[in-house]
Amino acid sequence: MASISVVGVSVCCLLAALSPALVQAEMARYDNYRVYKLNIESVEQLQLLQLIEHHSDGYTFLSDPVNLNTTVKLVVAPHKAAEFGEFNQRFSLNAEVAFENLQALIDRQLRGRRETFGWTAYQTLEDIYTWLDTLIEQYPDVVSPIVAGESYEGREIRGVKVSYKQGNPAVFMEGTIHAREWISAATVTWILNALLTSEDLTVRNIAENYDWYVVPVANPDGYVYTHTTTRLWRKTRSRQNVLCYGADPNRNWDYKFNQGGTSTIPCSDTFSGPSPFSEIETRTLSEYIRSIPNLSTYLDFHASGQLLMIPYGHTREPLDNYYELMEIGTKAAAKLQERHGSIYKVGNIAEIIYVASGSSLDWVKGTLQTPLTFAYELRDTGEYGFLLPPEQIIPTAEETLDSVIVILEEGKAMGYH
């Protein structure tokens, strides 16, 4: 691959680490930060964007620049507008303005806060944990607390087990391993609520005939940080060096670690960590998942892109039950489309999004041999990305639950439970 030299791009993590988001306790604002939509059409453009991603100062990607012939969104700070204009012209980026003011988009996400827990607004970690306590009190014969791990800053990775009777096959469902993907936590809590309150017969069937282990927020430190300090934060909050914080908790699992789609630069959003399970969140969560008896299904929720993915992320080679999972996933995607018209693509991670090694999905399949393993990239396909407006929470969760029912029913028909 040809190399390029880019004048004006800061190549030191110092500038990235000294952004207001990392040195101030107050919530970072993004007034007049523009969001650009870019189509990557040449190797030179891809190299430029990857260089900006790894050594950014005033730039943040809302979707990763990984492959040619893909579309990404890039946040440009006001003080970088002139520099980015030069890049746009010099490298023929043909950048289109998607949003003039990122802060206005974030403010829209924060609307609708209510004193009572619900799904017309996004929920803080404190809101979610308080609600879990309420469920434990309301359904003492069905709901029990679980602690699925702990965080660098000392928080518990909390969840609940829902079990109506003994001997059920187990389903583990988790969200928000990437901190900024708020729709995943909201979707997981909505599905959990439906398992306890819905009178729909198909929902009651899966609720009562499986044991559900539900963890809405797998990265609590990062999730809190997105609510208090930097909305765009993705990683954990462990200190890597004097300047850089966090590792990508979905690149840190001990299965095909650093076999592609990761960064070794500590300030990068896709930094895999110095070693497998270097992050206490992934290490303790994996230990908990390993302890679950009769685990037949693992469901992992991300945003965005409207993808239903199966292992593996390090290779496009089919896994042992690739064709069965593709059949199940295709039927689940068809069901996803019925209610609100959302179109999802189905395939393994490396096929339909990009190479990404060291993920939780790959570890659960590759290490535990869990038969039904699916990862969702929830709404949307690029307009808002993980900054999805709150009015889309319930429709997203409704169609997702429809597809989960199909995954379990089809898996049962194939003898996986």
From TrEMBL:
Please give the cofactor(s) recorded in the UniProt entry for this protein.
Zn(2+)
Q: Name one GO cellular component term.
A: extracellular space
Q: Which SMART domains match?
A: Zn_pept
According to its UniProt entry, this protein's organism is Anopheles arabiensis (Mosquito)
Question: Which residues belong to any copy of the Peptidase M14 domain?
Answer: 121-411
Keywords annotated in UniProt = Carboxypeptidase, Disulfide bond, Hydrolase, Metal-binding, Metalloprotease, Protease, Secreted, Signal, Zinc
Could you confirm whether the keyword Glycosyltransferase appears in this record? no
Question: What is this protein identified as?
Answer: Zinc carboxypeptidase A 1
Cellular localization per UniProt: Secreted
As for family, the record states: Belongs to the peptidase M14 family.
Q: Which InterPro entries match?
A: CARBOXYPEPT_ZN_1 (IPR057246), M14A-like_propep (IPR036990), M14A_act_pep (IPR003146), Peptidase_M14 (IPR000834)
What domain of life is recorded for the organism?
A: Eukaryota
- Gene Ontology MF, one: zinc ion binding
Q: Where is the active site?
A: 377
Keyword hit for Iron-sulfur: no
GO biological-process terms attached to the record = proteolysis
Please describe what this protein does.
Involved in the digestion of the blood meal.
